[in-house]
Fold this sequence. Notes:
Radius of gyration: 21 Å
Distance between the termini: 16 Å
Shape: globular
Number of domains: 2
Number of helices: 14
Strand order of the largest sheet: 10-9-11-1-12-13-2-14
CATH architecture of the largest domain: 3-Layer(aba) Sandwich
CATH class of the largest domain: Alpha Beta
CATH topology of the largest domain: Alkaline Phosphatase, subunit A
Order of helices and strands: EHHHEHHEHEEHEEEHEHEHEHHEEEHH
Number of strands: 14
Helix content: 25-40%
Structural class: alpha/beta
Amino acid sequence: MLIRAVAYWGVEGIKLSEMSINCIKERVILIVLDSVGIGELPDAEDYGDLGSNTLGNIAGELGGLNLPNLESMGLGLIEDIEGLRKDVSPTASFGKMSEASKGKDSTIGHWELSGLIQDYSFPVFPNGFPEEVIEKFRKATGLDVIGNFPASGTEILKDLGEEHIKTGKPIIYTSADSVFQIAAHEDVITLNRLYEICRMMRKILNPYRVLRVIARPFIGRPGDFRRTRARKDYSMPPPGRTVLDILRAAGLPVVGIGKIGDIFANRGLSYSIPTDDNRDGMVKITNEMRRMRKGLILANLIDFDMVWGHRNDVDGYANELSEFDTNITMILEMLTDSDLLIITADHGCDPTMPGTDHTREYVPLLVYNPSSTRGRDLGIRDTFADVGQTVASAFGVSPLENGISFLGQVITPKNA
C-alpha cells in the first residue's frame, strides 16, 4: 500500500509526503533480548561497569559463539564478537544504540525503546530501605521483615530462606536498580497474598518514586530453594506518552508478550500474554503472528537476564543465545514483505563481571524486512527511542517527541 504521510522520516531530513515509497508496514515484531548488551557505554564508569560487554565477554571466555542466523543478519558486523564472521552480506540492517536515559533498569530501557527518555535517576538503596518505609510495610501487612539490604536473589534465599520459613517474615531486598523485592516461600505466603502485599507496597512507594516492586516467590527446602516462574513486577506507569499509547489511540492492536504488561503497567496494550520461558515466548510470538494481521507484537525474553546473567552463568547464557538463534528461524519464515522485525535489548547483564547486577551497555540493533535488497549499517544510534520512532513511522501514526526513525534506511524495495 503506497501511503504519503506528514511525519518526518528521520536522518534523511525530508518528509514522507515528499517521497513515494512502499514503506508503511502492516505488522512490527519487536523482540527485546533482556540484558543482551554489546559493550560498555561511555559513562559505564559512573555505574561501576567499566569493561562490561555481555556478548563480547561471553564469546571471549568460551572461545567464540556459534550463532549462524544472527551472524547472517549482521550481528558480528556491529562489534567484534569471537566466533562471528565479518565477511557476510547481511540480510538485516544492523547497528547499536546508546541509552540516553539515566540508569540501567529493564523498565527504563523499555520505556526508552517506546520513546520516553528519563533524565531523572530513580532512587536506589545501597543501605537498604529507610525505617519509615519498613514501618509502613509492617502497618500495611501486619508482618515484620527480614533482610532489607542489596543482594543476589538466589544468594539471599540461601542466607535467609530457612529463617523465613521458621518465622513467616517475608524477605525484603534490593539491588543496584530502583527495586523493592519481596521474596516468600509459596507454602508460607500464598501467591495471592504475596501479590496483594506487592500491590499495597506499590501504592506506598509511589511517593518515593521506586521504579518497581517485585514479587519473588520460591519453593523447596533449605539447601534447595528455587525461585519460581510466578514472579510479578509492579512498575510505575510510564510518565509520558509511548508509541504503544499512540498506536492504541490510532486503533491498532498492540500485544505484549512476556513481562511487557508489568513493565508498562498494562498501559497501551490490547492485551498481555505471560510466558514460561524464552522458548515459550518464541512460540507465543509465532502464535500471535498467525492470529494478527496488523499491529505491534512487543515481546521480552527474560531468561538471558533472570536465569543466566544475574547468576553469572556464562555457559547457560551462551546456550540460551544459541537456542534463540535456532528458534528465530520460526519467525523469519513467517515474515512477509509487509512486516518489520526488530531485535534489540534493554541493557546489559554481563555474567563475566563481578557482582550480579545489570551493566550499562550499548544494545545491538538488527532490523529485517523481506522486501529489502540488503542490510545496511545503521551506525551508533544516540537513543533507544529511535526504535519507537521507527515503529511510529512504520505505521504512519503521529511521531514521538524523541528519537529519529531509521525506517528509510531499512526499507530498500527490490524494484528500487
